Amino acid sequence: MIFFAVSILTLAALLAAFPTNTRNNAASIPLTRRLNVPSGQTLPEIDKARAQAFKSTAAQRAQKDSSITPVPVTNTAVLYTAEVLIGEPPQTFDLIVDIGSSSTWIGANTSNPYTPTNTSTATSTILCVQFIEYGSGLFIGLEYNDTVTIGGLSIPNQTIGDAQWALGFEAGVDGILGLGLLDAYEVGIAFAPPNSTSDPNGELTFGGVDSSKFNGDLTYTNITTTYPAMDYVGFNQSVTFGNQTLLSNTAGIVDTGTTLVELASDAFATYQNLTGAVLDSTTGLLTISSAQLDNLPSLFFIIENATFELTSNAQLWPRALNSAIGGKNDSIYLIVSDLGTPSGEGLDFVNGYAFLERFYAVYDTGNSRVGFATTPFTFSTSN
């Protein structure tokens, strides 16, 4: 697919503009889940391409100092969207929430174009260009200053990107709300296992955490110093399956643009062997029998001194959504997939939605850390 869009503003700049008295109070906005699997592609293929884009992007950043860098933001199968208001009177835009991107733009939906208002000011007539690593496209658009409202907080004179072209997005999606590595700000994200292809089942909290969304205490770990995971929301963890270690204190990332849990190829091969799963050519996912499910051990993620458990049910693709990915209604699919590269390369796992729908996550890059906690959905059997 080819994507044409604009990438102008880091959300960090917008959040930094929150007045001191409002930043002391957390603001939350609801998130809606959408399933968007392009024809001819499987979930693992899409996730693997995204992971490779992360690695190649980091490599290009290391080789040159440039304000124009590849940003892998659009090639994703499971989307969470949030409403953002722009202008006065306000226009409503439905934006994809993406931890892997640090840029925010609108204009993907031609039926909901951005119209300058009384509070709008054009900042430049020069087109802004940014390359995207996969999808082979470029970002082109215009800059405006306008009032932006998120979660009831209105911030005047914020720069936004207005895309002149946007191809390849699901109907109704207006652009990207890039969270990336926010500057000195805290964002909490709560998801839940889905029941349909379009669920209002998440919440994004700016300026703090929503303690009603998780159990007990948060476990924080520092952003990793290992390249290339350090360029994203990267951290170190170990992964075990039952009593078998798959990855030992290695670096990877957490990413809302990735659908599955990706493990380095050697770790994935061990997981597949231990489960006895067979690769399904139609969906690209591992599949197991009912008897194998009855004996499926938990998958454990060890972060600092805490252990986060993906139960046997949590390792399953939601069976109610089998047909949405071209699968059989009575088949049992697993959400662990192959990263496509061996361990030891500095990005050995990606904890995607399948992980985040079971655990609360906090991105606190002002303190260079990320936090996790269990939720009421951690041990849910909804899949």
Automatic annotation (TrEMBL):
Which SUPFAM superfamilies does the record match to this protein? Acid proteases (SSF50630)
Q: Which UniProt keywords apply?
A: Signal
**Signal peptide range in chain numbering:** 1-17
What is an example of a Pfam family matching this protein? Answer: Asp
Q: Name one GO molecular function term.
A: aspartic-type endopeptidase activity
One biological process term in Gene Ontology: proteolysis
What range(s) does the Peptidase A1 domain occupy? 80-373
Q: Which InterPro entries match?
A: Aspartic_peptidase_A1, Pepsin-like_dom, PEPTIDASE_A1, Peptidase_aspartic_dom_sf
The record's comment on protein family reads: Belongs to the peptidase A1 family.
PANTHER family noted in UniProt: BETA-SITE APP-CLEAVING ENZYME, ISOFORM A-RELATED
Q: Supply the name of the protein.
A: Peptidase A1 domain-containing protein
UniProt source species: Phanerochaete carnosa (strain HHB-10118-sp)
